[in-house]
Amino acid sequence: MTDPLLTVEDLNVTFPGRETAVRAVRNASFTLGRERLGIVGESGSGKSTTGRALLGLVPRPGIVTAKTMSYAGQNLLQCTERDWQRLRGRRMSMVMQDPKYSLNPVKTVGAQIGETCLLHLGMTRKQAAARTLAMLEAVRIRDPELTYQLYPHQLSGGMGQRVMIAMMLVAEPDFLIADEPTSALDVTVQNEVLRILDDLVSERGMGLIFISHNLTVVSSFCDRVLIMYGGKIVEECAARDLQNARHPYTRALVAAAPSLDIQRTELATVTRDPEWLK
Amino acid sequence: MIAVDDLNVTFHNGGRSIHAVQGISFNVAAGETFGIVGESGSGKSTVLKAIAGLVPSTSSVLEVDGRPAARRRSRAERRLLQLVFQDPYASLHPRQTVDGILREPLVIHGVADIDDKVMAAIADVGLLPMHRFRYPHQLSGGQRQRVAIARALILRPPVLLLDEPTSALDVSIQAEILNLLANLRQSYSLTCILVSHDLAVVAHLCNRIAIMQLGKLVEIISAADLRSGTVTADYTRELIAASRGFTRAPSQNQVVLS
Amino acid sequence: MSVPLAQWLSSEAPTSRRHAILSNAYRGVRSFLANPTALAGLVIVAVLVFLAIFAPLLTMGQSPLDQDLAGRLAAPSAAHWFGTDELGRDVFARTLYGARVTLTIVALVSIVVAPIGLAVGTIAGYLGGWVDVVLMRITDIFLAFPRLVLALAFAAALGPGIENAVIAISLTAWPAYARIARSETMTIAGSDFIQAVVLQGASTRRILFRHIVPLCLSSVIVRLTLDMAGIILTAAGLGFLGLGAKPPTAEWGAMVSSGRDVILDQWWVATIPGIAIFIVSLGFNLLGDGLRDVFDPKSA
Question: Are C174 and C147 in contact (CB under 8 A)?
Answer without folding.
Answer: no
